[in-house]
Design a protein that fits this description.
- The protein has 88 residues and is mostly beta strands.
- The protein has one domain.
- Helices cover 6% and strands 32% of the residues.
- It has one helix and four strands.
- Strands 1-2-4-3 form a four-stranded antiparallel beta sheet.
Length: 88
């Protein structure tokens, strides 16, 4: 396991907020798994993902791309119901 880098290493203040945007235009279904999703966010830099049980979301799909001319990662958040739909 690699330890998390501290905010000071990137010359940021101790209490910085991640750069997150909610895009205005979004696809009808997730482009990664082609199922419905509850929300989508765009991240431009430094992010951490904890992959553990979550009461709200069952799965988050990651789709690298570009937003506003910057390299970005789109996060598609799927609820438990959405992630298990059609898997009977």
């Amino acid at each position: 396991m690699v330890p998390c880098k501290s905010p000071q290493r990137f010359n940021r203040p101790q209490t910085y907020a991640p750069v997150v945007e909610i895009p205005e235009e979004t696809p009808q279904v997730c482009p990664v798994c082609e199922t419905a999703y509850e929300s989508v966010s765009v991240h431009h830099e430094g992010l951490m993902v904890a992959l553990r049980a979550n009461e709200r979301y069952r799965r988050v799909c990651f789709d690298p791309g570009e937003h506003g001319g910057e390299p970005s990662v789109y996060f598609y958040h799927h609820t438990h119901e959405q992630a298990t739909a059609g898997t009977d």
